[in-house]
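Much of what follows relies on a compact textual record of a protein's fold. With that in mind, consider the following protein and its fold in token form.
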Amino acid sequence: MSTAELASSYAALILADDGVDITSDKLQSLIKAAGIDSVEPIWTSLFAKALEGKDVKDLLLNVGSGGGAAPAAGGAAAAAGGDAAAAEEEAPKEEEKEESDEDMGFGLFD
């Protein structure tokens, strides 16, 4: 990570910890107060746009929670009725029967 990215990340964490809205101006003022002059304003605006409307504390708490099928299923359930019905129709098609030893004509203890 570059100095600009680290400084913007730390500034965003400080603002989130204080419960202050994360904006480009606030990030830039924190970075300048820390004495870091090499951060271009594009970095603070990118971080502000990326974190707009998100709870940073919640993001940090859910860093290790694995992705997978749960978020996709939750998104399908929250979708409109037609989209949910289409998602339900696709679900059985995705499941494929795995080949087993019985299909090959021999077993583990034969």
Summary: The chain has two domains: 3-61, 63-92. The mean pLDDT is 73. Residues 63-92 form one domain. The CA atoms of residues 9 and 31 lie 10 Å apart.
